[in-house]
Design a protein that fits this description.
about 20% strand; Metallo-beta-lactamase, Chain A; about 625 residues; 7-stranded mixed beta sheet; single chain; GMP Synthetase, Chain A, domain 3; alpha/beta; 28 strands; 4 domains
């Protein structure tokens, strides 16, 4: 059956289900969505159950769009929206997309625009004809968010064309009757970095993650040239579990090599991924290294992104459905669950995950409708990889910061811009607000400020306690006056100033603004360097942890040696990764338990140790594949 025949059949089924007096003028696939065009959007809005019933019956994600002829003029539409939506919602901007019949309403308080169960949105549609979409106005101004929104609006016509091509590919006729499923490991096995895997069926090839290994000069890129992924333009979909560069850093490279398909991710992952990729090529260019792609390629990849919220079941190929679940690692991080065929097989890729409540996120989900194979990480999978509790970690951080400030020193915390920085920020904000730590400035250097702004744009992805604090108590810890953005020209003033805390990127001391602070602060024994995240082998951070007493710095073409006299501390417990006990408990409490487990994302010894322990404890077939292995699942 051709796509046109599928659409005609769906059109007839929809007509049968619609109440009398409601008609549709056109039907089209746009990405994973089935778009219904109608001259009577108000009648759809009158009955909020119509779309839900159709989606359930057709097993499709459905969007209703009005024909342009029935739309109110934008200036009239704005007046009516402002009559409907209470002033407390604080609407800040509108964007009218005539081709899609949508009005995007930017506001500070989305709930007041949406209304209970979407009642306000339906009221808006009934009044103006346009389909309203909402977007949060960032409490902290974000240049990334602003630029993304402007670019996507400017490219709306091109994007519509892209989505229609994707939609037709997703809903194409199946051509094979065979049933087999394979996973090929392209990177991230028995190592940390360059995570990438291909999930293959007779019909479909899906690439899960496409990361870079920043700590390796020789093995930094996944094996993107092997037959399983060639030609790249034949891949059906790319799925990104989270934004960190070791999982998403080389997505634009796929487009450079000819990929033209969709990239599925959550909304925060899209925004953070763009931030990290732009910084990646900027740092590489500044350090005289060859960049793997240009900013134009990042924009091209952005144009192909399709955002999915947690729990949205979505067709991404004729025989595969994707659902994202919270992974608890960083903002928007996901466990990608694939349902293959009509009940044939289920696979979940955890990406990086945290199976414990944190200051930012609820613990990773491990309850799925069905699951036969689990692909999971082993960053802290070794037999002795146990982390202290969050309470212990916070107490240790408080103690070190207090001691350093008391002796007139400065605290330098190298941190990943995304995740660990915000976790530490919340702990420091509460400690300062409650008097545990003196009222000192906390300087945010590098991308941390922008990453924090993105966190404030997506509070619905934070844990329930933090959401309640922000939405109902009016207390947003990220907006504390103690947090101060660092301007590069002011770094020396901070270094020579009063006691303070400095959070700076990068988290493993492999470049970035933290290096300027480290060079200046290292010789003074009053200062303290605190590691709060994983330090990979080969990085400067790991070397300092091992006791390096002198550090080489390149200054104007000459190498200068700086003595390390400051205190060096490691505060475990802030990691976004599960420790050994949490990894074991994640599997023990899974519902249902998988039949097979594949271990990745860890040093070789840790992957092998965790695989062996899971097999011995739970009698589940478990292995730690090497890169370039292909595992047949059925």
């Amino acid at each position: 059956m051709t796509v046109e025949e599928v659409l005609n059949e769906l059109k007839e089924r929809i007509k049968e289900k619609l109440p009398a007096g409601i008609t549709i003028s056109d039907l089209e696939f746009e990405g994973p969505e089935l778009v219904i065009y109608t001259e009577e959007p108000r009648k759809f809005a009158d009955n909020g159950d119509i779309v839900r019933a159709l989606a359930k019956d057709l097993r499709k994600r459905i969007v209703v769009r009005p024909d342009p002829e029935v739309l109110a003029k934008p200036e009239d539409a704005i007046k009516k929206i402002e009559q409907i939506v209470p002033e407390e919602a604080k609407i800040t901007d509108y964007f009218f997309d005539t081709d899609r019949g949508e009005v995007i309403i930017e506001a500070e308080k989305l709930g007041l625009v949406i209304g209970r169960h979407g009642t306000m949105l339906r009221e808006i549609t009934k009044s103006i004809g346009w389909s309203p979409k909402v977007a949060r106005t960032p409490p902290i101004e974000s240049s990334i968010i602003k630029n993304i929104r402007q670019y996507m609006r400017a490219e709306s016509n091109a994007r519509k064309s892209i989505l229609r091509q994707i939609g037709r590919k997703i809903h194409r006729e199946r051509t094979f009757k065979d049933s087999w499923i394979r996973i090929t490991t392209l990177g991230g096995c028995r190592e940390v970095g360059r995570s990438s895997y291909i999930l293959s069926t007779p019909e479909t090839r899906v690439l899960i993650d496409c990361g870079v290994n920043l700590g390796s000069e020789n093995d930094g890129t996944p094996y993107l040239y092997v037959p399983e992924i060639s030609p790249i333009n034949q891949i059906d979909a790319v799925v990104i579990t989270h934004a960190h560069l070791d999982h998403a850093g080389l997505v634009p490279l796929l487009f450079k090599y000819g990929y033209e398909g969709p990239v599925y991710l959550t909304p925060p992952t899209r925004d953070l991924m763009l931030l990290l990729q732009l910084d990646y090529i900027e740092v590489a260019a500044r350090e005289g290294r060859k960049t793997p792609y240009e900013s134009a390629t990042i924009r091209e990849a952005l144009k192909h992104t399709i955002m999915l919220n947690y729990g949205d079941v979505t067709d991404i190929a004729p025989d595969i459905r994707l659902t994202f679940y919270n992974a608890g690692h960083i903002l928007g991080s996901s466990i990608a669950h694939f349902h293959v065929g009509e009940g044939l097989y289920n696979i979940a890729f955890t990406g990086d995950f945290k199976y414990e409540p944190t200051r930012l996120f609820d613990p990773a989900v491990n309850d799925f409708p069905r699951l036969e194979t689990l692909v999971t990480e082993a960053t802290y999978g070794g037999a002795n990889d146990y982390q202290p509790s969050r309470r212990e970690a916070e107490h240790k951080l408080h103690t070190i910061v207090k001691q350093t400030i008391t002796r007139g020193g400065k605290v330098l915390i190298p941190a990943f811009a995304v995740g660990r920085s915000q976790e530490v920020m919340i702990v420091l904000e509460e400690a300062i607000r409650t008097g545990i730590i003196d009222d000192v400035p906390v300087y945010l250097d590098g991308m941390i400020w922008e990453a924090t702004a993105i966190h404030t744009t997506h509070p619905e992805y934070l844990n329930s306690e933090l959401r309640n604090q922000i939405f109902h108590k009016g207390l947003n810890p990220f907006l504390s006056e103690n947090f101060i953005q660092v301007e590069p020209a002011k770094r020396q003033d901070i270094i020579g100033g009063d006691p303070c805390v400095i959070l700076a990127t990068s988290g493993m001391l492999n470049g970035g603004p933290v290096m300027e602070h480290l060079k200046a602060l290292a010789p003074d024994k009053r200062n303290t360097l605190i590691f709060v995240g994983y330090q990979a082998e080969g990085t400067l951070g790991r070397r300092i942890q091992k006791g390096w007493a002198e550090l080489p710095f390149s200054i104007e073409g000459k190498t200068e040696t700086v003595k390390v006299n400051l205190d060096v501390e490691t505060v475990d417990g802030f990691s976004g990764h599960s420790d050994r006990q949490q990894l074991m408990n994640f599997v023990r409490r899974m519902n249902p338990r998988p039949e097979r487990i594949l271990i990745n994302h860890g040093e070789e010894s840790k992957c092998l140790d965790l695989a062996s322990s899971l097999y011995k404890r739970y009698k589940i077939e478990t292995r730690a594949p090497m890169n370039l292995e292909t595992i047949r699942l059925i």
